[in-house]
Specification:
rod-shaped, Rossmann fold, single chain, alpha/beta, five-stranded parallel β-sheet
Length: 274
């Protein structure tokens, strides 16, 4: 690279970085592009006098007069050519990268490889890059840029303030869940009511007689059969497990009231009724 008068007709870029970083950038630039190493003063002057460069590459900690805040003001300049001039910032930290990105710059880590530098430089000089202008952000579309670096995709609307205040859509229960809840199990009561009634009956179940256990098991089987008509697999699983436990205990075997109550509670939770 060389420092020269900037009256050029060929595509050119300005590079304002430390000498050791300049070598890696030089190796990453296409041969058809002319690159000029400049100082901070020349970098700022290039924004005021034509011809404008195709790209400005700067090290975030090397140029003190061009800050993210100043770039944000440039991004709202009335002159469209100046406003949309691509600027690529080499940053040291994620916080620094976030500040420059929010101001409308392409960002890349200072220690990025030659291959990464080449990709980002080519992308920054691409005339097809979508331009975004919102109340919160003005600059190149950051979603595309981050895809180049294989980072997480940005949100659909490149407006941080709007994205933070937008409420999440409420997840509605499936229609079939409502159908199971409303359906009568024993000819008169919806399934949630029957499950709550079973929780009450469970209190003395371990000391109950054969007939009481038989009625309790019958209600559990009716509830499980009704639940099986839906795709609420969690509900069906809990009721089937409860039925198996009662059948295994028989008419006189030991029962665990706490375990039974837990299964009934989980069944109600699967219905969204807990």
């Amino acid at each position: 690279m060389e420092t020269a008068a900037l009256a050029m007709s060929a595509p050119h870029i300005l590079v304002c970085v430390q000498p050791e970083v300049e070598k890696r950038i030089r190796a990453a630039i296409d041969a058809r592009v002319v690159a000029y190493a400049v100082g901070p003063a020349e970098t700022l002057q290039s924004l005021r006098a034509p011809p404008l460069p195709a790209l400005i590459i700067l090290a975030a900690d090397h140029i003190q007069d061009l800050t993210p805040a100043r770039l944000a003001r440039i991004r709202r300049a009335p002159n469209a050519a100046v406003r949309k001039l691509p600027i690529m910032a080499l940053t040291n930290t994620s916080a620094e990268a976030a500040a420059w990105s929010a101001a409308g710059a392409f960002t890349v880590p200072l220690g990025a490889s030659r291959g990464t530098l080449h990709k980002v430089i080519r992308h920054a000089m691409d005339a097809e890059v979508r331009w975004v202008e919102t109340a919160a952000y003005v600059g190149p579309c950051r979603r595309t840029h981050r895809a180049i670096l294989r980072r997480a995709a940005r949100r659909l609307e490149d407006s941080p303030m709007l994205a933070k205040t937008r409420p999440r859509p409420r997840k509605e229960p499936r229609e079939e869940t409502f159908a199971v809840m409303a359906a009568s199990v024993d000819g008169g009561q919806p399934l949630p009511t029957v499950l709550r009634r079973l929780r009450i009956s469970n209190n003395g179940l371990c000391h109950s007689d054969r007939d009481q256990r038989a009625r309790f098991l019958s209600d559990v089987r009716l509830a499980r059969a009704q639940a099986s008509r839906s795709t609420n697999y969690a509900l069906v699983r809990e009721l089937a497990s409860l039925e198996s436990e009662i059948v295994a205990a028989g008419s006189v075997g030991p029962l665990d009231p706490a375990a039974i109550d837990t299964k009934l509670y989980d069944a109600l939770r699967a219905l969204g009724e807990a």
